Amino acid sequence: MADVLTDRINELEAEVEKLKSQLREKTRAGEVMDVTSSSSSRDNTDCSPEENGTTSSKKKGKKVNKDRPLDFSAYPRRHVALRLAYLGWNYQGFAVQENTENTVEARLFEALQKTRLIQSRQSSNYHRCGRTDKGVSAFSQVISIDLRSNQFSKGLGITLPENVDVNIKNKAVVSEFPYVKMLNRVLPHDIRILDWAPVAQDFSARFDCQSRTYRYYFPRGSLDVKLMADAAKRYEGTHDFRNLCKMDVGNGVLQFERTILSVSIQPAWSTQTSTSESHDLFIFEIKGLAFLYHQVRCMMAVLLLIGQKLESPEIIDQLLDVQTNPRKPQYSMAVDFPLILYDCHFDGLTWKQEPEEVNYILVTLQQHWTQSAVKSHLLLGMITALEAKGATSTGQCLLVEGSRCKNYRPLLQRPFCESLESRIDHFVKRGRLEREESQNGGEMIHRGKRSKHSHNSPNPTISSDENFSKAKTEEKAED
């Protein structure tokens, strides 16, 4: 038995050696093939892409062409107005900021440069209608800007390049670049271009805006909405709103008179669909020529106090009386996310829509709405179930920043913020503002050399005289 096993082991060992020998031969043959193949490949690389016919070379060539710099001087420029909508909840505001890239404007300029519609922001003749704050959305924000065009014939807003060939200049008219489609394909899903309009070269989205309309959405809760609506009418007219805004003195804003054209509080829908009146939504809508920094949110905060019957409607008149109350009492603003820049009105503009894009934008908004509506009703179902079990709400308004004190202190009995004069002195000492004597003996104040705006614009002169042009107070909308 042992001899049989020994013979079998010897046979297996011989078989293993035979297999090893065959494997070594195959390995040597494979190395020769690899060397030959490698040599052949190197020889082929000396040929042109057309000769070797490799797909990778063609793809590489296309990439090089795509990255080739564009000669903007060979194209016409067109001054246009762009109207855009955005959900501002995930952004740090509309305007570009030094300390963050997470702004709507930063994303917009990324898209403009990616589509090669502009060469740079500095050369684009750019103006914005308003600069919404962190968390604030817009349905009708408007900017004016010079975009690359394909129109070599005359047209509104067209600037032809120098030394244009006459034959090219007079060639048949073609359709303008599809600006809306081009930008929407590269913008984030919560920023959308709605339409565009050709405008004259001197048009400015900031200075030519006729009016701006904001909306602030809020639930009824335990608020007296009728009392709020009656009180809101006191905002209408031209008033000094220094006690109903954040004074932006450091940036040269010293005039606080603003004109409010209309104010209203209405149900969000013609037929409210919630199961309880406390969950019905309302809209505070305000239309004005221009707005101060945080003005709408401060105005809404006071209305919420009135709706809770913590303040009387007369508090609005008292805050607007800056002779009697020259300093703003300390109070928290209304939160940011329910606020939207709903409309910016311009006279004489012909907005051009791209039908396919309108449907595309509608689908995008429906996706956002579907998710938000489902979440909203899911939460409402939970609230209703808890109320059915006997749970009771405190009735506290949840739309004001900060925590609520247990014992309410009336506005005019609170500590006050610094006066306008004190703020001016503060920024003069820091070099942000400078004082000069005017020709009529009054005082002129302008931005100083240390102003953060002094590097990109001439120092505007700001007069503290009463005869200062009211037009300067209507320059911008900020909230």
TrEMBL record:
Annotated GO biological process: mRNA pseudouridine synthesis; tRNA pseudouridine synthesis
Region (Disordered): 22-70, 431-479
Residues of the Pseudouridine synthase I TruA alpha/beta domain: 231-347
One GO CC term on file: cytoplasm
Organism domain of life: Eukaryota
Signal peptide (residue range): none
UniProt feature, compositional bias: Basic and acidic residues: 22-31, 467-479
Keyword terms, alphabetized: Isomerase, tRNA processing
Transmembrane portions of the chain: none
Compositionally biased residues, Polar residues: 456-466
Gene Ontology molecular-function annotations: pseudouridine synthase activity; RNA binding
HAMAP family for the chain: TruA (MF_00171)
Family, per entry: Belongs to the tRNA pseudouridine synthase TruA family.
Protein known as: Pseudouridylate synthase 3
Species of provenance: Cynoglossus semilaevis
